[in-house]
Amino acid sequence: MKQKRNNWFKYISCYFALAILLVPSATYGAGLPVLGQPPAETNAERVCVSLIIADITTGSILKIKDPATDINLFGGGVRLMTALTALDYMQPEDTILLDNAPIDLPQGARLIGFQKGMTVTVNDLIAAMLVYCANDAAVVLGDAVENAIGTVDFVSLMNQKAEGLGMVNTVYLNETGLAVEGQTTSLADQLVFAQASFSNNTINTIMSQFEYQPQTTDARFPDSMTQYSSIMLPEDSSYDSRVTAVARGSDGDETNILIRAQNGDHDIFIFMIYPSSNVEEVYIAASELLTEYMDISAFDFSQYIADKISEFTIGSDIIKLPWKLQEGQPLKFIAYKGFEPDYTLLNVEPNADSIEKFEDGTAALYANVYYQNTFLTEINLMAPVLMENTPDPESTAGPASLQLYESSDVFIQQSFMDLYGWIVYTAAAAILTVLLIAIGKILRKYTKF
């Protein structure tokens, strides 16, 4: 008992030390906010166990339900990560010679039926996984990567890929998508995953086809593969022309499905857990959600924000400089159907404490952008400043940067914590650890276990 109590104190000490060292911790955001009012809740939303709908381009979440739910992951979503991982190590046109066929998988697995001596391309294996939904194709592709790079654990590469993308709540246990306990994910991770997967040209090209024509000429390999997801088949009653990619799996009780839908400039994805293995029911629910959330609007606020910035560059109490927006900042915001922007409600609030002066003769300033009371984003501004020994701008000695004016309570310098904060955090962690250990020793001395 005493040993257990000693271990308990050690765990507490380590926990607090790590907590301090990791503040501020890194988190991945949910994209830019969505303006306006979401549509009324649909029947599909009520029935779903959990759900996320998001704009792929911005990452903005249009709808989320039960985001803290741990999700059992199986089916096409797993094989999609198999494809994404394999493409880090192999080219789509690479050929693979099979020398370990037939593949032994549980009864009910969907198979191509690979045979020893067959030669297939990486492209065709990905299509077999994602269009035809063949579990054995994932095994072949995983083995090929292992042979190519000299590893014995392809699934560990999948987990490394997930970690690298920031999928902190996802664990892969196989490459086939067959259901297994402990293979889990989260809604937030699936948003990250969808953005990564659908930015891959090879995967996009293959998944968007309702009938794939293989490059492999081996007579034992299918000469064509029809899309297994009937929602993408024009002649099927479940067809939805907006759907351009599907990754689906079922364990008999529920279905998890990832759908990409595109319509003009609109590009959204849905990941949902639906309490049924009836494919037609799942597709009806997906189409219902698309109808409500597909036609979002996008508004570019960049010019209006620039106009607001110009208002505080002249005669400002903060600083009199010609501030300009840094390039590459996302200033296009999406809104639900029916929203009409009133640009007079736009406000830009500069943060005087964030001003920094650099050796190259520029200064930086951060500002927050609001629409009425809704925070939209933080923006980065830059401006030229007059360096020491630079000629007076009004002299005839030549051109110079503009003079820098500071208010009485604003100084362009980094704070103590900006420069030495990491030392403070480390020291605090060490002190707290020693203190907790000391407390533990005192309690052990005067407490009977």
Summarize this, please?
This protein has about 450 residues and is of the alpha+beta class. The protein has helices at about 1-20, 45, 75-85, 120-130, 135-150, 155-165, 185-195, 200-205, 280-295, 300-310, 415-445; strands at about 50-55, 60-65, 70, 95, 120, 185, 210, 225, 245-250, 255-265, 265-275, 295-300, 325, 330-335, 345-355, 360-370, 375-385. It contains 11 helices and 17 strands.
Q: Could you characterize the architecture of this molecule?
A:
- There is one protein chain.
- This protein is an alpha+beta fold.
- The chain has helices at 2-21, 43-47, 76-86, 122-130, 135-149, 154-165, 187-197, 201-207, 279-293, 302-311, 416-446, and strands at 50-55, 61-65, 71-72, 95-97, 119-121, 184-185, 211-212, 225-226, 243-250, 255-263, 266-274, 297-300, 324-325, 332-335, 346-357, 362-371, 374-384.
- The chain has three domains: 2-25 and 431-446; 43-295, DD-peptidase/beta-lactamase superfamily (Beta-lactamase), CATH 3.40.710.10; 299-413.
- Helices cover 33% and strands 21% of the residues.
- The strands form six sheets. It has a five-stranded antiparallel β-sheet with strand order 2-1-11-10-9, sandwiched between helices. It has a four-stranded antiparallel β-sheet with strand order 13-17-16-15, with helices on one face.
Keywords:
449 residues, alpha+beta, Beta-lactamase, 3 domains, 5-stranded antiparallel beta sheet, 33% helix, globular, disordered N terminus
Overall pLDDT metric: 83
Oligomeric grouping of the chains: single chain
The top level CATH class name of the largest domain: Alpha Beta
How many helices in DSSP terms? 11
Bulk shape = globular
Summarize the helix and strand pattern as letters.
HHEEEHEEHHHEHHEEEEEHEHEEEEEH
How much of the polypeptide forms β-strand, as a percent range?
15-25%
Looking at the structure, the CATH topology of the largest domain is: Beta-lactamase
Helix fraction by DSSP (H/I, runs of at least 4):
25-40%
Characterize the largest beta sheet: strand count, sense, and whether it forms a barrel: 5 strands, antiparallel
What's the alpha carbon Rg, rounded to whole Å?
28 Å
Order the strands across the largest sheet as they lie in space: 2-1-11-10-9
Q: Which structural category do the helix and sheet elements fall into?
A: alpha+beta
Low-confidence stretches: 1-29, 387-418
Distance between the termini: 6 Å
